[in-house]
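User: quick one, sequence for these tokens?
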């Protein structure tokens, strides 16, 4: 049986943020131009990730704006360690146990990436990324232009050079990740949307994966969740406290919020694919509503009392109410 190889992006995939954005935050801390430069760097990043400008142009323009030094990298690395994507943290055991088959292929910079991903079992010799160039004072002045990953379609070129013998699955959030499949190097491209979703990328994907749990589930691989919570819809009505929204999202659920209450017919339509419903006192959960709630497993009343919920019908259907 041939092996499966997993090609994973770093920026906005392994981590929740772009590393160069973090470097900008650090290198320009306390300076008046910080916000305007950060905005411009993010704009250029998005253009590159959506495939609207070349990678070489994106890297060159962003590094020119950074005014960064080697001494800034340590703090950036520590910030990134605190911003690893939640579903990657949950599935650290998978990353460790399958390290032999996992490659980090990034258009970012290895000096920043390696200290973050190696804490999750990723092998350093299976991390491929760009390299900074410094002047005699440690100032970042560019990148190694001989590195395959600074060139257009560099990820595809790098993977070709690895000569992997087996099925290649790519997980990433950017257009350069899709290009690996486009170039015929990968068998499938999974658009990772836990941190950011780009229409130009998701429209090209074999699968849209809102978490690493979903990716592992689709491919029948070991995972921390037997069934991905990203497949479970949570509907919160009537201005449920933002802390509840934050907690559900941190656990990986797909959350929708609506400020007001819904009448019976509206709720009948809305609840069809909902697993968890959160309400307050103005929403009535009737037997008619519950008859339309094919996936509902729980109702939370974020208020005093449960008079607005048909408890007998919930009990009959095995729906927990709290």
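Assistant:
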């Amino acid at each position: 049986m041939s092996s499966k190889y997993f090609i994973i992006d770093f920026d906005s995939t392994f981590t929740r943020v772009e590393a160069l954005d973090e470097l900008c935050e650090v290198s320009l801390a306390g300076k008046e131009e910080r916000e305007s430069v950060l905005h411009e760097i993010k704009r250029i990043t998005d253009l590159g990730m959506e495939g609207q400008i070349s990678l070489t142009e994106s890297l060159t323009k962003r590094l020119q704006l950074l005014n960064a030094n080697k001494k800034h990298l340590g703090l950036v690395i520590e910030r990134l360690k605190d911003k690893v994507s939640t579903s990657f943290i949950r599935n650290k055991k998978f990353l460790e146990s399958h390290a032999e088959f996992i490659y980090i292929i990034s258009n970012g910079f290895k000096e920043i990436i390696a200290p973050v991903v190696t804490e999750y079992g990723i092998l350093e010799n299976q991390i491929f990324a760009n390299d900074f160039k410094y002047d005699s004072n440690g100032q970042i002045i560019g990148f190694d232009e001989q590195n395959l990953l600074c060139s257009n379609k560099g990820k595809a070129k790098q993977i070709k050079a690895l000569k992997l013998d087996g099925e290649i699955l790519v997980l990433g959030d950017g257009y350069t990740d899709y290009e690996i499949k486009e170039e015929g190097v990968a068998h499938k491209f999974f658009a990772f949307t836990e941190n950011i979703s780009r229409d130009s990328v998701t429209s090209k994907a074999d699968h849209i994966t809102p978490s690493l749990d979903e990716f592992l589930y689709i491919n029948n691989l070991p995972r921390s969740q037997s069934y991905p919570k990203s497949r479970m819809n949570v509907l919160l009505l009537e201005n449920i406290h933002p802390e509840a929204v934050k907690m559900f999202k941190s656990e990986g659920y797909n959350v929708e919020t609506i400020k007001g209450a819904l009448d019976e017919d509206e709720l009948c339509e809305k609840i069809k694919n909902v697993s968890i419903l959160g309400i307050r006192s103005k929403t009535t959960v009737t037997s008619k509503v519950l008859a339309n709630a094919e996936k509902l497993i729980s109702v939370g009343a974020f208020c005093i009392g449960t008079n607005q919920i048909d408890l007998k019908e919930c009990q009959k259907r095995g729906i927990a109410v709290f």
